[in-house]
Amino acid sequence: MLDAFEPIAEPEADVPPWAGPTGIEPIRPARRTSRPPLLDEPAVEPAYTDEPDQDGASRGGRSIRSRSAAGRRRRSRRRLWYAGTVTLVIAVIAGAAYYFGRPGPRPGSDIVTTLQGGEYRTVPNACRVLPAAMLSQYLSGTGKSIQPYNQLDQSQCTYTVDAKPTFRLLNLTVQAYQPYPGLIPGNGSATANAIYNYSQQQQQLAKPPKHTPQPPATIVPVSGLGNQALSAVQIFRTGSITDRVTVLVRYRNVLITAYLEGQVSGGFGPVSISSLQAGALGAARAMLAKVKAGPAIGT
Fold it and tell me: 18 in a domain, yes or no?
């Protein structure tokens, strides 16, 4: 026990070094030393947050870029959606225009799929229509038959004279058109098919396709010959000069084409347009008479 009157010993002299508060230092967590990543180990990017720091700037710069990219993707998707919608609408409109504007029969119209009364299934043989005297007159000489073609509904025959000073070529074609519903104007009947092809041939005579040697024809209508008829005059200038007259006739569902041409250069000729026209008209009339004499549907 200590005496109250005994002087207090100096603390630094009497206290052992381990007993004071300064004898033990506070323990700190050990700091892990950083190591470089291994070659096969992917580098780990630090995580960012969107919380602002004390300066008010966002510590999530990468997140801002991610939001911008997401916005761009959303706008791109909207643009693709709008473009797809517009394309679909245009395709629907184009399809409807093609369906309702095509030359075939409209929905609900009377479609004809068989030959009707008065129409023809077969045609005469074109090489057996013109007698020898008529051929000699039109060709100004004895004609030779070349390139014969004959089927039940179509026949073609070509006659030629090639002896200076005369060159003539007569071509005679006849065809009975059949019903063709859905791809021609009107109800698709055989007569409608013949009417359509008559107009197509007339258009090609008036305005031949580009890059062809055929010149535009001078066309005049011919009355009193079938249901429709025309005469077309063409002058070919392809090294030599050749005059051609074409007569086109439609009778019901039958088309008759007769053309007569003569060369007027290179030691051949002369030949007049009127004589060519008379020969083409005569051949077309003779063929029409043969067609009318043939059997028609319902007769």
Answer: no
